[in-house]
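Q: I have 228 residues here and want to know how they pack in 3D. Can you give me a structure?
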Amino acid sequence: MKEKIEALARISELITSDMYFEDILRLIVTITAQVMGSSICSLMLLDEKKKLLEVKATQSVSEAYNRKPPLRLGEGIAGLAALEGRPIIVHDVKKDPRYVNKDIAEKEGLASLVSLPLIVRGKVIGVLNLYTSEPRDFTEDEIKLLTAIANQAAIVIENHRLIMESELVKEELEARKRIERAKGILMQEYGLTEEEAYRRIQRYSMNKGKSMKEVAEAIILAWEMKKK
């Protein structure tokens, strides 16, 4: 029990971690696999636009498993867990007609599977999968623990997404400020209208394969050096 509580505590700490996102996901599946005695633990994230679940982290060294194709929402056990928003337990994946990667299960010696949706504010964002090498009847306490881990993992992932969105907004605002300043310089130096200045930056950006922010920064730098 102590080990399981410690596992939850370690995953909870990741909410405010400054580790790389990929390392955070890998640590989640590694901790989960260790505490549950799992042969393979994986974390799949949902691409909302494509409605696909793709493996983003696993502690498995199996190339076959790591390279398995994405699942459509509702496809296979993981896809079904994501679609229905509930844990699904399979005693032996090799005998369950819903499981779509039986060749990998045979090759890697996979038996039981627990697939739990990662849910944030009522929205499924992914799935946590736990495999065992022998058929296993999971206890109620084990399912509760895995559900708690899945809930913590979902918070960690959503927290990272919000941080990334915040950073993107900051970058966009900064780029907009640079472009506005560069437009002002072109308008002042060449007597251009605001639209003409914008189009000139845009054309140069497309011709040189650079972002408009990079072009704007070059204009600002050249203007500042000229002033000196």
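Q: Anything worth noting?
A: The longest strand covers residues 123-131. Helices lie at 2-13, 21-36, 63-66, 76-84, 102-108, 140-190, 194-208, 212-227.
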